[in-house]
Amino acid sequence: MTEVTAFAALESGGRIEPWTYEQRAARPSDVRIEVQYCGICHTDLHMIGPWGQSFPMVPGHEVVGRVIEIGDQVGAFAVGDVVAVGTIVDACRECESCLAGQESYCLRGATPAYGAPDRIDGSQTRGGYADSVICDERFVYAIPAGLDPAGAAPLLCAGITTYSPLRHWNVGPHSTVGIVGIGGLGHLGVKFARALGAHVVAFTTSAGKAADALALGAHEVVLSRDENQMAAQANRFDFLLDTVSVGYPMTPFVQALRLNGTLCSVGLPAQFDVAPMALAVGRRSIAASGSGGTVETREMLAFCAEQEITADVELVSRGEINTALRRLEGNDVKYRFVIDMAR
Ligand SMILES: [Zn+2]
Ligand SMILES: [Zn+2]
Asked: Which ligand is nearest to the CA of 154?
């Protein structure tokens, strides 16, 4: 057992406080990782709050760090390697999804990186707001040389969540793509869609974000509260990546899709507010997508290295986690907070 200094919510809705716990001894295929950077995801806010099932909870599923110990059957990693861990740390490994490397869609339910029972001993999984994490090597990713480790951390959740649907819906040089909402997810959606060769349009509610969206790589910006601008988008888009997490009237966006176009939500509001007739006219689809598996995550990291894509991050110290969470609640970040565990 290894004593770990972590930062945990001791009870639902509580502040993040220093807390120590005993981390398991390394199993044969485990990798123990000294955390260098951990992104702060919107999910962390939900888990510390209403979604959390078990406390104390150590959040964090955008982890980059250095390998400090390996089990005796680990083949892919060595001590000293710079690696990452994302949103899931295990899955059944036998179902159709797992066999296809799409473990985030495990039919028996993948094991989240924190706040869930470990599949082998039932202990709680604990995330990257900590000195170290431990994870089976199947769910550990090499960080390609040349990728800034702090900016790479958010790729493990925000990155794969936006990359996966763009790839699934075959976004490429032939595509006109809209990214709805330019925040932690959306800013990466713009970068990926642009790098995939698409014509990229950013949809935002705030005129103040227009210049930023263009700087991120969007070819055009549409102010979605401007009815005239929205009407001018009709029948234009092959694909819309929707990162908005609260319900809003989606029909004008659906009407911006071409024949057979798809709007895919990754923000996952509680309900979709859309007129079915707007879907029928143009045989349009509304879909949703969640994260991605090990095969696609490796592909994404290689793509990011080749295209020099990382998240735009604001580094915070261990002592600033609560302030960062409060600011994240108010969408006051460009575009992702990352904890620098050395500060
Ligand atoms: Zn996340
Ligand atoms: Zn499975």
From this structure: 1
- Kindly give the distance from the C-alpha atom of residue 203 to the centroid of ligand 1, in angstroms, as a whole number: 22
Q: pTM for the whole thing?
A: 0.97
Ligand nearest to the CA of 104: 2
For ligand 2, the distance from its centroid to the CA atom of residue 186, given in whole angstroms, is 29
What's the whole-number average pLDDT of the chain? 97
3-state SS, the chain, equals CEEEEEEEECCCCCCEEEEEEEECCCCCCEEEEEEEEEEECHHHHHHHCCCCCCCCECCCCCEEEEEEEECCCCCCCCCCCEEEECCEEECCCCCHHHHCCCHHHCCCCCEECCCCECCCCCCECCCCCECEEEEEHHHEEECCCCCCHHHHHHHHCHHHHHHHHHHHCCCCCCCEEEEECCCHHHHHHHHHHHHCCCEEEEEECCHHHHHHHHHHCCCEEEECCCHHHHHCCCCCEEEEEECCCCCCECHHHHCCEEEEEEEEECCCCCCCECCHHHHHCCCCEEEECCCCCHHHHHHHHHHHHHHCCCCCEEEECHHHHHHHHHHHHCCCCCCEEEEECCC
The number of the ligand nearest the C-alpha atom of 95 reads: 2
